Amino acid sequence: MFSINFLKRCSSTMETHNLTYISEFQLLGFSEDPDLQSILFGLFLSMYLVTVLGNLLIILAVTSDSHLHTPMYFFLSNLSFVDICFTSTTVPKMTADIITHSRVISYEGCLTQMSFFLLFASMDDMLLTVMAYDRFVAICHPLHYAAIMNPRLCVLLIFISVFVSLLDSQLHDLVALKFTCFKDVEIANFFCHPSQVFNLSCSDTLFKTMVTYFVGAIFGIIPMSLILFSYYKIVSSILKISSSVGRYKAFSTCSSHVLVVCLFYGTSIGVYLGSAVSYSPRKGMVASLMYTVVTPMLNPFIYSLRNREISSTLRRLHTWQI
Residue 308 half-sphere exposure, CB side, CA atoms within 13 Å? Predict the structure, then answer.
């Protein structure tokens, strides 16, 4: 009786689609121009291959060099693995859609994509926070670094990151499965972004907004606050170093992480929380592209170009191949 009344309230204001009759959603493309499709395909495929290859090289460098078997590089190799998985949740489907000229995704496929997207996005989020803590301990408590960041704690932090990320993913899935009708079947993004799927539902707006901001606070505001606090302490410690060379060396170990954090959070928080108030499809797609494709692609370059140990290991690997 409740579901019937609910559907009537939805249909009284706009056209809706009963969940039992929905088998697929329609995704949004970057361009309708047929001449641009081959260019877009080549561009996105190239970016995906560079992302996978670059992050695999980081993992190979860390695992092959015993000098890089430290907590910082342990977390970096995990971040590289998560970045590969993260971008793999969206780009292969997007490139396939360009080839087939079809942007249709099944209802089950949409929920699956959303689930894996949230899992790896949350993992990225948690790992960046853990890496900030690692730098905080290394710079602010250098004498106790080895004792604090022991292998057991490092593995525990990874397991906590996975567990919390799974909770986030399952929470969104449980909310999405409760949707009984939709306003439309067109998702205003190139993949099943959680906030866009939520916006299509006729369910209580207040409830959807509460979930959006609750998750945004847990995986956006709280981690960012922890990162900012860590770097506040780091900067305070660096300024106390009398030698300019020492200050530069201390800051250089954090600069790559700072750049990645700015790229990831600057785009992801904006598109996630901003969609709850107002949303421009094209701007949202560009922002989504930045943190789902561009940021994972740039991470290996940022860490390798600004890190001498990674760069030297990659050069040695290249020499061995020759």
Answer: 3
